[in-house]
């Protein structure tokens, strides 16, 4: 982002994202977090982030992640849980429970469902 300061939200990545059918623009608070982390990482290439875990369970971060996943129309995982079922039970409650598990470090992710995609070389890859 040479020649730009953090007050400018227009980056090449954002310009490309603007052309996508689905807007993945984060809310201001999430964007500020992303930019602060990016600035710190670029300012000191050897810096190690040891305390990022607390950023995971922020309500704004989880809500934005939900919106992005929902708009992407992701398929159910190995547990068979679908967006519609979560919405029936209440998204806010589901996100609150997820945040609590992350905060307490008791969250255990399910296995990832693998889908094999044919490649042009007639081999298959995940």
Structure description:
It comes from Methylacidiphilum fumariolicum (strain SolV). This is Group II intron reverse transcriptase/maturase. The protein has helices at residues 12-18, 28-43, 53-56, 59-72, 83-89, 91-103; strands spanning 117-118, 124-125. β1 (117-118) and β2 (124-125) form a beta hairpin. The chain is 48% helix and 3% strand. The mean pLDDT is 82. The protein has a two-stranded antiparallel ribbon. The radius of gyration is 18 Å and the shape is globular. The protein has 6 helices and 2 strands. The protein has a domain at 28-104. The two termini are 32 Å apart. The chain is mainly alpha-helical and 126 residues long.
The pLDDT mean sits at 82
Computed Rg = 18 Å
- Give the helices and strands as they follow along the chain: HHHHHHEE
Unreliable runs, pLDDT <50, ≥5 residues? none
> How would you describe the shape?
globular
- Biggest sheet, open or closed, and with what strands and sense? 2 strands, antiparallel
Report strand %: under 5%
Strand order of the largest sheet: 1-2
Sum this structure up briefly.
The protein has 126 residues and is mainly α.
Features:
mainly alpha, 48% helix, 126 residues, two-stranded antiparallel sheet, 2 strands
């Amino acid at each position: 982002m040479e020649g730009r300061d953090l007050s400018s939200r227009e980056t090449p990545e954002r310009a490309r994202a603007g052309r996508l059918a689905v807007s993945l623009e984060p809310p201001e608070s999430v964007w500020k977090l992303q930019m602060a982390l990016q600035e710190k990482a670029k300012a000191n290439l050897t810096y190690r982030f040891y305390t990022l875990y607390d950023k995971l369970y922020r309500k704004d971060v989880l809500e934005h992640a939900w919106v992005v996943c929902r708009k992407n129309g992701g398929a159910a995982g190995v547990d068979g849980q679908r967006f519609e079922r979560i919405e029936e039970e209440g998204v806010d409650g589901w996100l609150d429970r997820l945040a609590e598990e992350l905060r307490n470090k008791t969250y255990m992710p399910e296995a990832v469902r693998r889908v094999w995609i044919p490649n042009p070389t007639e081999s298959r890859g995940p």
